[in-house]
From TrEMBL:
It comes from Portunus trituberculatus. One of its GO terms (biological process) is peroxisome fission. The keyword Heme does not apply. It holds the Pfam family PEX11. Keywords: Membrane, Peroxisome, Peroxisome biogenesis. This is Peroxisomal membrane protein 11B. The keyword Signal does not apply. It is found in: Peroxisome membrane. One of its GO terms (cellular component) is peroxisomal membrane. InterPro entries: PEX11.
Length: 241
């Protein structure tokens, strides 16, 4: 019950939940598409995917201004790398959302637009934002590694929800360092997972990679789950964001 309250309490929580349903629908219809007796189901799932995509664009109307205002705040961060990556990322995100708003107006029939053109513009700005976010993640990981090498790392708080990761990874010794990192720095871990999954989506839409609709659906679903964790668990949200 508390989970639903947290998700419904913010637009971000709702967006992540609807995004998960959107990409999960794509994953499912792609796996069912080859079955001729399930054509009606596939058609319904495609409608669900399209409906949630359009509804999410409606939810994001006006968010571009909020993101732009956030860029003004990150300009004053003392850390140079964070100041540059976060500010530029927010500018790219602002431009992505601006193009996203235009696409919604086109879908709603309020404005005659070249949807394919604006979709490419939107994905280019989204890709730029993700690349900058990944650079920030790499910087955070490098900072943590240096701190560990100097034995200056502060004590960490491991949540009960993360304790199972190490148990699962015991069967695969090579994954134990990843499990330990996820337990101790889950904010950086989940943000990195989200961005590493997300980057392939605009790359595919722009034609730089050729992933199937099912693969895109899977990556989008994993990314959405990582985003949901950050909404539900404050310690899993990377700050400053």
């Amino acid at each position: 019950m508390d989970v639903w309250v947290k998700l419904n309490a913010s637009t971000t929580g709702k967006d992540k939940l609807f995004r998960f349903v959107q990409y999960l629908s794509r994953l499912v219809w792609h796996n069912l598409e080859s079955r001729k007796n399930l054509r009606d189901t596939v058609a319904r799932l495609k409608i669900i995917e399209s409906s949630f995509s359009t509804f999410r664009k409606l939810l994001r109307l006006g968010k571009s201004l909020e993101v732009l205002h956030g860029a003004l705040r990150t300009l004053h961060l003392p850390d140079t790398v964070l100041r540059i990556t976060l500010t530029l990322s927010r500018i790219y995100q602002f431009l992505f959302l601006l193009a996203d708003h235009i696409i919604w107006f086109g879908r709603a029939g309020l404005w005659e637009i070249d949807k394919e053109k604006w979709s490419k513009v939107s994905n280019k700005f989204w890709l730029g934002s993700i690349i900058l976010n990944l650079l920030r993640d790499a910087y955070e990981i490098l900072t943590i590694t240096k701190r560990r090498m100097r034995c200056l790392g502060p004590p960490v708080c491991v949540s009960s929800g993360m304790l199972g990761i190490r148990e699962v990874c015991k069967a695969v010794p090579a994954l134990q360092p990843v499990a330990e990192f996820a337990e101790e720095h889950r904010d950086v871990f989940f943000d990195s997972v989200k961005n590493l999954c997300d980057i392939w989506i605009p790359l595919t839409h722009l034609g730089h990679t050729k992933l199937s609709a099912g693969t895109v659906g899977f990556l989008g679903s994993v990314s959405s789950l990582a985003g949901l964790v950050a909404v539900l668990d404050p310690l899993a949200k990377l700050a400053p964001a």
